[in-house]
C-alpha cells in the first residue's frame, strides 16, 4: 500500500506531568482528523477520532492493518462511555460491568459493550454491533484524550504484524513519515496489551484476549471467568479459523520478529539441549541464530544472540521486556529464533499468548 509521506511532529513530555501546551498541539491534530501516537500503561497506541471515518482510515493506512479487525476506543472519563454505548441486555450484566470499571479503570482492561448507533465510525467496530472500550492508566494518555475532546480509536502504534512498541523510538522506526505526530512519554509500563473481555451475565466474563489484567484478578473482583476458544490457555492454532474477530488481537498474526521463530516446551535441560542442537544445525547453514530465554536458564545457550526476556520468578518483568527483545533480534539481523516457554498462570497466560502469535504458533514439545 502506498502511504502519502507525512510530516511527523514529535513531542517529548514528562510521563507524570505532561506539558499541556505540547499536548494541545497534538490534540489539535487529532481534532483535525490526524493520527497521533501516544503512550499508555500497556504499549504505545496510534490514536484518531473514533467518530470520524476519515480519521480512522488513517490508522489502517499507516499500519497496513486488515479492515475487518476492530479497534479499541480509549476514553478519559465515564461521560464519554455514555456517549458511545448502550446498556447490556443480560440481567445483572450492567452491574458487573460497572464493578469491573470501578475496580480496573483506569487500567489495562477493555470491555466489549453494545455500541450506540452512529456513535463511532463503522470502521472502528468492523461492522459489529459492539465496541471495545477502555480507560488507560497513563497521565499522558488521559490528558491527551481530555485535551482533544475525542474518544480515540487506538490500536498499537506499529506496522501491522510487527512487535508492539513500548518506546517512542519503536514508533518512530515503524511509522515516522506515515502519521502526523508522536508523543514521547517514556517507556510503557505493563509491556503487553490490555485484557479484552465481554460480560456474559451478572456473574460471568469471557476473556477474548489475555493481557495486563489476569484471570485471577477478575476472579478476585467477583467474576466467574470463561475463555473464548482463541484466548484460552493452550489455545489451538486454528481456533479462530473462519470466525470474524469480535475483539482486537483475535484473528491475525501479530507481534512477529523478522526472523523465523519457534517455541520449545519441556523440562529446562531437555529444552536447552534441543535448542543448542538446532542452533548448531542453523549455523552450519550459515544462518544467524537467536535464543529468547529466562534469566534462570540463559547461560545454557550458545547462540549468536541470547536475550534475557525476564525472570520466571517475576513474569511481569518478562512481559515488560518481550517486545523490546523481539525488536532487538531484528536489529541484530537474527534469522532463526528459539524461545523458552513459561507456565500459563497469571500474566504468564498473556505472555504465552503473545509468544505463540509471534512464532506463528510453531511449537515443539521435547
From TrEMBL:
Domain of life: Bacteria
GO-annotated molecular function: ATP binding; double-stranded RNA binding; L-threonylcarbamoyladenylate synthase; tRNA binding
Keywords associated with the record: ATP-binding, Cytoplasm, Nucleotide-binding, Nucleotidyltransferase, Transferase, tRNA processing
PROSITE patterns xref list: YRDC (PS51163)
Predominant subcellular localization, coarse grouping: cytoplasm
Claim: RNA-binding is one of the keywords in the record: no
Positions contributing to L-threonine binding: 42, 74, 134, 154, 194
Subcellular location: Cytoplasm
Cellular component terms per the entry's GO annotation: cytoplasm
Annotated catalysed reactions: L-threonine + hydrogencarbonate + ATP = L-threonylcarbamoyladenylate + diphosphate + H2O
Record: residues binding ATP: 65, 69, 130, 156, 164, 209, 255
Residue ranges annotated for the YrdC-like domain, each copy included: 20-213
Signal peptide coordinates: none
A biological process from GO: tRNA processing
Protein EC: 2.7.7.87
Cross-referenced InterPro entries: DHBP_synth_RibB-like_a/b_dom, Sua5-like_dom, Sua5/YwlC_C, Sua5_C, T(6)A37_SUA5, TC-AMP_synthase_SUA5
Keyword Ligase: no
Pfam families for this protein: Sua5_C, Sua5_yciO_yrdC
Family under the similarity heading: Belongs to the SUA5 family.
Function: Required for the formation of a threonylcarbamoyl group on adenosine at position 37 (t(6)A37) in tRNAs that read codons beginning with adenine.
Protein name: Threonylcarbamoyl-AMP synthase
Taxonomic lineage: Bacteria, Bacillati, Bacillota, Bacilli, Bacillales
Amino acid at each position: 500500500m502506498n502511504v502519502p509521506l507525512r510530516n511527523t511532529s514529535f513531542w517529548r513530555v514528562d510521563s507524570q506531568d505532561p506539558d499541556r501546551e505540547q499536548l494541545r498541539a497534538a490534540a489539535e491534530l487529532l481534532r483535525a482528523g490526524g493520527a497521533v501516537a501516544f503512550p499508555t500503561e500497556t504499549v504505545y497506541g496510534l490514536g484518531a477520532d473514533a467518530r470520524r471515518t476519515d480519521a480512522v482510515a488513517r490508522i489502517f493506512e499507516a499500519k497496513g492493518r486488515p479492515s475487518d479487525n476492530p479497534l479499541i476506543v480509549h476514553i478519559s472519563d465515564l461521560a464519554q462511555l455514555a456517549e458511545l454505548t448502550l446498556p447490556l441486555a443480560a440481567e445483572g450484566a450492567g452491574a458487573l460491568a460497572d464493578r469491573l470499571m470501578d475496580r480496573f479503570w483506569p487500567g489495562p482492561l477493555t470491555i466489549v459493550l453494545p455500541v450506540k448507533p452512529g456513535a463511532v465510525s463503522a470502521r472502528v467496530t468492523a461492522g459489529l454491533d459492539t465496541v471495545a472500550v477502555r480507560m488507560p492508566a497513563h497521565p499522558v494518555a488521559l490528558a491527551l484524550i481530555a485535551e482533544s475532546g475525542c474518544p480515540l480509536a487506538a490500536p498499537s502504534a506499529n506496522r501491522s504484524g510487527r512487535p508492539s512498541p513500548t518506546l517512542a523510538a519503536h514508533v518512530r522506526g515503524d511509522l515516522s513519515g506515515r502519521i502526523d505526530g508522536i508523543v514521547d512519554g517514556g517507556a510503557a509500563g505493563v509491556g503487553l496489551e490490555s485484557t479484552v473481555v465481554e460480560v456474559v451475565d451478572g456473574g460471568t466474563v469471557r476473556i477474548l484476549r489475555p493481557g495486563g489484567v489476569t484471570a485471577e484478578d477478575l476472579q478476585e473482583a467477583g467474576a466467574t471467568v470463561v475463555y473464548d476458544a482463541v484466548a484460552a490457555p493452550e489455545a489451538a492454532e486454528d481456533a479462530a479459523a473462519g470466525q470474524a474477530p469480535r475483539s482486537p488481537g483475535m484473528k491475525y498474526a501479530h507481534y512477529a520478529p523478522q526472523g523465523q521463530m519457534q517455541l520449545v516446551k519441556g523440562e529446562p535441560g531437555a529444552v536447552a539441549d534441543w535448542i543448542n542442537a538446532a542452533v548448531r544445525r542453523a549455523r552450519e547453514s550459515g544462518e544467524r541464530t537467536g535464543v529468547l530465554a529466562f534469566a534462570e536458564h540463559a547461560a545454557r545457550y550458545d547462540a549468536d544472540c541470547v536475550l534475557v526476556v525476564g525472570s520466571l520468578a517475576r513474569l511481569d518483568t518478562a512481559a515488560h521486556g518481550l517486545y523490546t527483545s523481539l525488536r532487538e533480534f531484528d536489529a541484530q539481523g537474527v534469522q532463526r529464533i528459539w524461545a523458552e516457554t513459561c507456565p500459563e498462570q497469571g500474566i504468564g497466560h498473556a505472555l504465552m499468548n503473545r509468544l505463540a502469535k509471534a512464532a506463528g504458533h510453531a511449537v515443539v514439545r521435547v
